[in-house]
Amino acid sequence: MARDTDIHLRNKVLYSVFVRNHTKEGTLRAIEDDLDRIQELGTDYVWLLPIHPIGEVNRKGNLGSPYAIKDYRFIDPTLGTEEDFRHLVEEIHKRGMGIIMDVVYNHTSPDSLLAKEHPEWFYQDRTGSPSHRFVEWTDVIDLDYNNVHLWNYQIETLKYWATIVDGFRCDCASMIPIDFWLLARKEVEEVNPTCIWVAETMYPDYIFELRDEGFYAASDSEVYAAFDATYDYDSRSLMEGYLNGIVSFESFLMIKQRQEVQYPENYIKLRFLENHDQKRVQTLVKSERALLNWTAFLYFEKGMTLIQAGQEKGILHTTSLFNKDPLVWEKKEGIDLTWLFKKLEQLKVEPTFSSEHYHLTGDKDCASLYGYYQKGEDRWVGIFCLRGAEVSMLVDIPDGTYRNLLNNEDIFVEEGRVSLQGMPLIFKAKAPPKRSELVYSPYKEQVSLSAREQTGV
C-alpha cells in the first residue's frame, strides 16, 4: 500500500461510464445530462473508460476497443473535444464528485503515434515484429518498459492530465514495472498531490501464465507499493465458482478472510459485482433476495465500491466494447435496485467503515456471511445470506432487539441466534464481553488442521 494512502477511500463509491455507449449520442457532452442521477446514487468518483482516439489497424468490430489507443494526449473526436472534456469535469466537480481517467499504458494500437515514431519502445516477438503477450489481444501491441525514454513520455502525459482529473484507473497495472508506477506517482504529486491511484490487477491464473512465459507480472501485494487500491480479482473466480455451484462456501469465505492477513493493514480493494469485462450480476444471481444480499455485502465489505453503469437499474445487457451499442435505460429487464444503492451509500459514509478493525466469518450450513466493524464496544454488524433464504444463524451479539438500517424493521437476537427472512441485515450493536469463537471460520479450521498434521497430534 502506498504509505500516504487515505484509508477513508474505503468509504467511496466509483461509477463506471463507457462514454460511447452510455447515451444514444455517445458524447462527453451527453453525459452531463445524467450527472444529477449519478450523483444521487451517492457516487464519489465518475470513472470514464478510455476517451482517447482509437486505432484502425487490426480494429475489432466497427469502432474498435477504447483500450486500443492511438494517441494518449488527445481526446477521441467522435466523443468530443478537450474543451468538452474539461466542461464535463467542471460539471462533475460542481456536484461534489471527482473524475477518474482510464490509463492504458501496457499497450497501444498497432498504428499508434508511438508505434510510428518510436518502434523501439515496443515488445517484439521472435521475428522482431511488435507484438502482444496475450494471443487473443490482436488489436494491440505491448510497450516495453526497458526503455527509460518511454517512462519520461508516459509520465509527462500523466502530469498533463493530472492537472484536470482527480485520479487514474490504470489498466493492466500488474504488467508494468512497479518502479515505473512509483516514479509516476511521485512526479504526478508535484502537480496534483491528492491524485488517487487504482490498479487493475490480475486474476492469479493470469499471473501464473505470464510468469511461466518469462514475462513480468506483479502480485497485488507488490502493486500496493504504488497504488491506493487494487481490483478484487483474487476473490472473483471463487465468487463466480460459488454462484455456479463448483466452489464451496468455505472456499469463498476463506479467500475473503485471507485478504485481511495477506495485505498491509491499510489495504483497499476495489469491490465489484460486475464491470465492463464481466457478466452482469443479475445474469449470475437470479433470485431477488439473493441479489439484495450480494449487493448489500458489496457496500458493507471493507473497500471502495464500484458500480457499472446500468447495474443499479438491473440492465442485463453487457454493451459491446467494439461497436455502437448504447444502454437502453428505458427497458425493464432485471430488478431495479436504485433504492437500495441510495440507502447503502448513506451507510457507506459511516467513518467506522474505513476502520482496520473489520472481521468476517460465516455459517456454512446456511451460506451466510457475518461481518462487523468494531470501535471500542460498538459494532456495525452486517449479516448476508448469499442464497437469500430464511435461515437462523448463531451470532456473538447480546440478546435483544435491534433495528435493520436498510428497512427500519426490528431484528431479534434470542439465545444467541438471529433469524434472517431473506433480507440483508445491517445494524448497530454492542460487542460481547469476551470475543466469541462460535461462528465458523474455514481459514482457522484449515490452519488448525495444518498444525495438527505437522505435529502429529
From TrEMBL:
It comes from the Bacteria. GO terms for biological process: carbohydrate metabolic process. Gene3D superfamilies: Glycosidases, Golgi alpha-mannosidase II. This is Alpha amylase, catalytic domain. Residues 12-348 form the Glycosyl hydrolase family 13 catalytic domain. SUPFAM superfamilies: (Trans)glycosidases (SSF51445). It comes from Marinilactibacillus piezotolerans.
